[in-house]
Amino acid sequence: LPSSGGHVEVGVEEAGSRIRVHVRDDGEGMSDAVLTRAKDPFFTTRATGTGLGLALVDKVVKLHGGELSLARREPRGTEVTFTLARAPADSPSGAHPSHERVVASGE
């Protein structure tokens, strides 16, 4: 997000036996070339970046049987979405996913 601030929206929704989590921002977005490589280990567009963030998220999501996708938002921004299997209601760890929406400001 730009240093002058911006917005990030995080949402969770049920999708059958899965949950879908999305993170959307209104930053400058990613070009097609960057979107194609963004999940590659050590790929970065930042001078001080390691290029491990999205690569690590992609690996963890896949290890849990999920999928990670990246998309450009119009007119600005990026959307990162991942899906995972939903925990059964009777599992010790898993309450049902909420439908709450959290919006944070980059101020």
Structural account:
The N and C termini lie close together (10 Å). A five-stranded antiparallel sheet has the order 3-4-2-1-5. The protein has helices at 32-37, 53-63; strands at 7-15, 18-25, 67-72, 78-85, 101-105. The chain is globular. The longest helix has 11 residues, at 53-63. It is built from two helices and five strands; from the N terminus they run E-E-H-H-E-E-E. It is α+β, with helices and mostly antiparallel strands. Mean pLDDT is 85; it is low at 95-102. Helices cover 16% and strands 34% of the residues.
* Global morphology: globular
Output the number of helix runs.
2
Cα-to-Cα separation, first versus last residue? 10 Å
What's the rounded overall pLDDT mean?
Answer: 85
Q: Which stretches are low in confidence, meaning pLDDT under 50 for 5 or more residues running?
A: 95-102
Give the number of DSSP strands: 5
Secondary-structure element series: EEHHEEE
Q: Tell me roughly what share of residues is in helical segments.
A: 10-25%
Radius of gyration: 15 Å
Beta-strand residue percentage: 25-35%
- Biggest sheet architecture: 5 strands, antiparallel
Biggest sheet strand line-up = 3-4-2-1-5
- Coarse structural class: alpha+beta
